Amino acid sequence: MIYRVRHIFRKIFRVRRGLRDILILSILVGFISGGVSLLFYYSLEYVSKTLLSGYLGISPGTNNVKNWFYIPVMVSLGGFIAGILVYSLAPGAEGHGTDAVIGAFHRRSGYIPVNEPIIKFLASIATIGFGGSAGREGPMAQISGGLASIISRVFGAPIYIQRIALIIGLAAGIGAIFKAPVGAAIFAIEVLYLRDFESDGLIPAFVAAILGYTIFGYFTGYEHIFVLPYKPIFTPFEIALFSLLGIATSLTGVIYVKTFYKVRSFFGSLDIPPYFKPMIGGFFTGLIALFFPQILGGGYEWTTILASGEFPVFQFGSWLYLDLNRDFLLVISISILLIILKILATSFSIGSGGSGGVFAPGLFIGALTGYSLAAILIKLFPGLIGEPMRFISTFMIVGMLSLFGGISKAPLAVLIMVNEMVGSYELMGPAMISIAISYFLTGRITIYSEQLRDREHSPVHWVHS
Question: Half-sphere exposure (CA, 13 Å, Cβ side) for 378?
Fold first, then answer.
């Protein structure tokens, strides 16, 4: 009797060695990525607060702007440090990180060199912390993906598991830094392709992303990335207007992608030592920031300020706050100009060979698109739209994710991230409309050049077919 019970339990709990190894790897990578995300986050906060908020005095909500005329020097210096680190020690650490993970999955059997995560960590702090227009999610994707790749090789995992390790690391890093574990897990299996999913990685990605998020949130707090200042309430007419937002963000997204790769191609053609290129890109970014410091960094703080109803404009050492009703044409003109300048600044900072993510700048560009369109619609239909600032703030949030859902080719993941990043399910309906339209209108245009069409076009599945 005891033998039969033992035999039954063995059958129930018997797990193939590969699945067991993947589960152990997911847990290990989740814990490590959560800790590394904390180290990256606090290191970046310290550098940016010391240099940008401290020395330059450029910080949202303060007029103590002391050394603003040194902005081009500061951003150039960050680019130069990043260029020296990357091109002397790990050329694969240049660019926006997520693309490197996608390329490693498809073309290099999940292999990321040992030095790349370390150099990516340091170069990204130099690029972003010194004011470059870039986000922290791309670096964390490559850092966590690289660590997962290294860990899988240390334990002698087969090639199949080494590739899954990249998905696990990508999910853990983004899930922690964005505080969006479910969306990050789906993003990790969706972003590899234009029209497909790598479904084998879904469950281990969930495990790693939740563990990374738990550790990161325990120390930084579990507050949402964006807090809606107004409760989303929509009339049927307002919901229909989100289709226009999908059209607008698809157009802006295409301009973003085309500009980014044009600038990247331009810097690639320059016949100068490569470590000087991020410095030049940083200098151009700094010149823009002399007049519009809002383009520095990822743009999270400025998005929050705009959503709360304030519109600050920089005037040579001080901030002037415009009123949307009183200064309508000026506000709309500046917000559209900021879209163009943020696209250029991001292209200069990352396309030149600097190190940082394209996700956060894309969110800021999408938020500005939503702000501009919402303000125009309020002017056109004043009697049909209820509370103007409620309408504007929701258009900004949905605009952020509509733009990136289109150009990342990860609409499902981005849709779920809406709820996780703002803590509100009320945006699900409008976001579905806008993201779907943006996704279809952008076609095959993507910010991730290493994406392949589907699983059939990936060398990974040629081996197994």
Answer: 19
